[in-house]
Design a protein that fits this description.
Order of helices and strands: HHHHHEHHHHHHEHEEEEEE
Number of helices: 12
Structural class: alpha+beta
Number of strands: 8
Largest sheet: 4 strands, antiparallel
């Protein structure tokens, strides 16, 4: 008897459920039967099912007849630059923005130099600026309810990877750019999810503290001072994951083949690399000539011709001794066409 009651109850619940699904726009039994009836049976559908069941739909919809080589000729092409990979991060906006800057550089550069900007460097400041935006937003909305949509937005989304080209322009204008070789990618810049969760959790904690300070009527100066302390901790977290932004570096441009292409320093461009020309010590230098006898019986050397010249000092290492001496070789200070014997 008990089993019959349970069975009857189950059937009643199923019937009530079916009625609930068919009432007010649900799928009725007749509608379902019509769908089943409209299904086309046949060899073609069976073949399609077998193909789709065992293959990727993307592969099946390819039109083999259209797989001829694609014409990649463009009327305007920029010199090729290296390809960068954002990997598991949401920095597409920064990578594409850098590509625009790199392409402009390539078009205007006549030396074939390749430039690579550090995404890690600018991403550090992007995250720091977004952390400040969240904390300042919480302060500005501190008197609103925690249920306010704007307040909820800051606590639900304290930090993210997203952005636009305007962000690239603003960040680059404020913080500048550095080469990728000066500050390369880190694991956390390529895989931002864990870092973002940790910093976001800390920002939510800080946000609640700031709201409490506003509710207690703390002075604005005290709130801002505490916010700066919080940003200091965020800075520290970013330094551990992305690396502290570099301030000084040595860099040399290279072409697409990896060869160094660099404009020489002034002393290399205008002088010999191992010699120093002292333009303040020009003097007369004589060449050739003969010994002549003077009226008083003395003899002197009479040069064949002379020029004004400046000395070029060279360092000459000592042989077998930890010393070096300077050897001066004179270089003419006037053009050869003006020389007179």
């Amino acid at each position: 008897m008990r089993k019959n009651v349970l069975l009857l109850g189950a059937m009643m619940m199923a019937s009530m459920s079916l009625m609930a699904q068919t009432k007010g726009g649900g799928i009725s039994q007749s509608a379902l039967q019509q769908m089943e009836k409209n299904q086309q049976a046949g060899v073609a559908n069976k073949a399609l099912f077998n193909a789709i069941a065992n293959n990727s739909i993307d592969d099946l919809v390819k039109n083999h007849a259209n797989e001829a080589p694609v014409d990649t000729h463009f009327s305007i092409e920029t010199p090729s630059q290296s390809i960068h990979n954002q990997k598991s991060s949401g920095r597409c906006w920064m990578f594409s923005g850098f590509n625009v800057l790199r392409s402009n550089f390539a078009v205007n550069d006549k030396q074939g130099r390749v430039v690579e900007y550090s995404q890690d460097y600018l991403f550090f400041y992007d995250q720091l600026e977004k952390a400040n935006l969240m904390l300042q937003g919480v302060i500005d909305l501190g008197k609103k309810s925690i249920e306010d949509p704007q307040v909820q937005f800051f606590f639900k989304n304290p930090l993210n990877d997203g952005g636009t080209f305007c962000g690239v322009a603003d960040l680059a204008s404020k913080y500048g750019l550095v080469p990728m070789s000066a500050q390369p990618e880190t694991y956390s810049s390529n895989n931002t999810s864990k870092m973002s969760r940790l910093v976001s959790s800390k920002l939510r904690e800080y946000g609640l503290e700031l709201r409490k300070m506003v509710a207690q009527g703390k002075k604005s100066a005290a709130i801002q001072a505490r916010k700066n302390e919080m940003l200091g901790q965020v800075y520290h977290m970013l330094s551990l994951t992305l690396g502290e932004p570099i301030k000084e570096f040595t860099y040399a441009f290279r072409d697409k083949d990896g060869k160094q292409v660099e404009t020489p320093d002034y002393w290399l461009a205008n002088e010999e690399p191992w010699g120093h020309i002292d333009y303040n010590r020009d003097q007369k230098v004589s060449f050739g000539g003969k010994v002549v006898e003077n009226a008083d019986g003395t003899k002197t050397w009479q040069p064949a011709w002379s020029v004004r010249a400046v000395p070029v000092d060279y360092l000459v290492p000592g042989c077998g001794a930890p010393r070096a001496t300077t050897s001066s070789i004179c270089s003419p200070s006037t053009a050869p066409s003006t020389w007179k014997p």
